[in-house]
User: Fold this.
Amino acid sequence: MLLTGCVLRLGYNTLGFWIPYYVSDYVSLDSAQEREFERNLDQALEVHRQKELPKIHRLISDLQEDLEKPLTFHQISDYHFKFTAVGQESSTIFIPTFSAMLKSLNAEQRTQFNQKIADDIEKIRQERAVLTTKQKIIKRSKGLQKTAKEWLGTLTNKQRNLLTELAGYQVEMEPTFFSIRENFLSDWKALMAEPQSDVFQQQLKVTVHQLLAFENPNAEKELIFYLNRRFDVMRRLNHSLSNKQRDHLQALLTDLRKDIALLIHE
Assistant:
């Protein structure tokens, strides 16, 4: 995701509108549920602004400092898990808000929510099923190249080939990724079956954290193997950057960091 300047600030400052809007795709809340959800969400967003945005700001600053030199495999791995942890910590701020909303749902609403998640997974499965392996790699590579070009400005043929290599690894992992999604759906349905449980909020937190980190005990070895391959590709990509590409990346990160600082103090 590449959001800078006014776009980032506008997006963040209107999350109070957009989050309920996207939730409405999954479940139809009544007016009382909507009011309570939006009230709790506004409070959570303010806590997130003051508590979590500074963490993101510091992490970007650390990354910029380390980017002055080519990153090692260990550094790339470390930043992956640091940014994942920040995402999990951010989600924790919103867990009580979503827990209260989910607990307020009746049986029909819970079924609607569960079915929408199942439909989303099935839609992705059907879209992928009609593609050959080669088509999947080409499509994924184009997406990776588009994102990389936004951050780096330009790409060399060598860098495009590296991203195609990564796309191949991701396509190879597709069955595992779908298995993780299916396991998440099973965990989610089990969670939603007992919304009044004393441990509902804690279980919701664990489920969300696992989803954000794409963790699954049943696929731990496969995921570690994939991540190591990914980190190695990113290391080689980082080492291939020209001074112009590094300057482009640093400029975008500086803009992002400054915009986050403005958000913290608004």
Notes: DSSP finds twelve helices and no strands in the chain. The chain has one domain: 5-265. The chain has a mean pLDDT of 95.
